[in-house]
Specification:
Layout lengths: L1 H17 L10 E3 L24 E4 L1 H6 L1 H9 L15 H15 L2 H12 L7 H13 L14 H7 L1 E3 L3 E3 L4 H9 L5 E9 L4 E7 L2 E10 L2 E12 L2
Antiparallel strand pairs: 1-2, 3-4, 5-6, 6-7, 7-8
């Protein structure tokens, strides 16, 4: 187990090094953590607001849209009914957008390295087109999350877009771009942060929102804090 964990750690570190598309904190985007958030009780969607401003004070959207992987990703975010129980309808245009996104990411060194590792582990086929079909099935194949039995969800929607349950509970949304865009449109109200620990080289920060908890993996540079990515940990319910 220890050897397997070490190997995975090395793979993840290599993927991080290969990611030349990521935006640079303090240059391409700036966050403003502001105040430390208060406790949110289980089942509650109230949190004392310790952040009057947005989390993201600046994002270079021109650069974001100029990178193929981000541009094709953003095109997918409006393809879904966010409410569980509402059946998804996938159009031919949306299927094309799915394929363009997969083609863009599969052309990166990150996904080429990930593919090679999965092939070595016997988890994926070596043929690139078969691997693409595997990814399409995992991310975009519809399934039912709601008891109604309707095909109302898929892996991509849950992880990257986010879903709503009973009109108020947020599920998924493990992605900083979607979080930024929703905050910009006034759909998300950032309440503050909760630090989990500190090191000389960085810190793990948790952001408390009305209906879910968001982790920010951050590092310090000078007197400001930049973030590599926000990732949803869990909702409060």
């Amino acid at each position: 187990m220890a050897r397997a964990n070490q190997e995975l750690s090395e793979v993840f570190n290599q993927l991080w090094r290969l990611d030349t598309n990521r935006l640079q904190p303090g240059k391409d985007y700036i966050i403003d953590p502001q105040g430390k958030a208060g406790y949110v009780a289980r089942g509650s969607n109230y949190a004392q607001d310790r952040a009057r401003a947005s989390l993201f004070s600046y994002v270079n959207e021109e650069k974001l849209q100029s990178i193929d992987t981000y541009a094709h990703f953003i095109n997918l975010l409006d393809n879904y009914e966010t409410s569980t129980g509402v059946a998804e309808t996938v159009t031919s245009e949306e299927r094309m957008e799915n394929h363009l996104f997969l083609d863009a990411i599969l052309a990166t060194d990150v996904m080429k390295h990930a593919h090679a590792y999965l092939v070595r582990e016997g988890r994926s086929p070596s043929d690139p087109m078969s691997f693409k079909r595997q990814l399409y099935d995992m991310w975009f194949r519809l399934y039912h999350r709601d008891r109604s039995g309707r095909e109302d969800s898929c892996g991509f929607e849950h992880v990257f877009v986010g879903e709503t349950k009973y009109g108020r509970e947020i599920m998924g949304l493990h992605n900083w771009v979607q979080f930024y865009l929703q905050e910009k449109r006034g759909h998300v109200d950032y309440k503050g942060y909760k630090a989990r620990g500190h090191k000389n080289t960085g810190a793990s920060v948790v952001v408390k929102l009305d209906e879910y908890v968001l982790e920010l993996v951050v590092y310090r540079h000078g007197e400001s804090i930049g973030t590599s990515y926000p990732k949803l940990l869990s909702n409060n319910n």
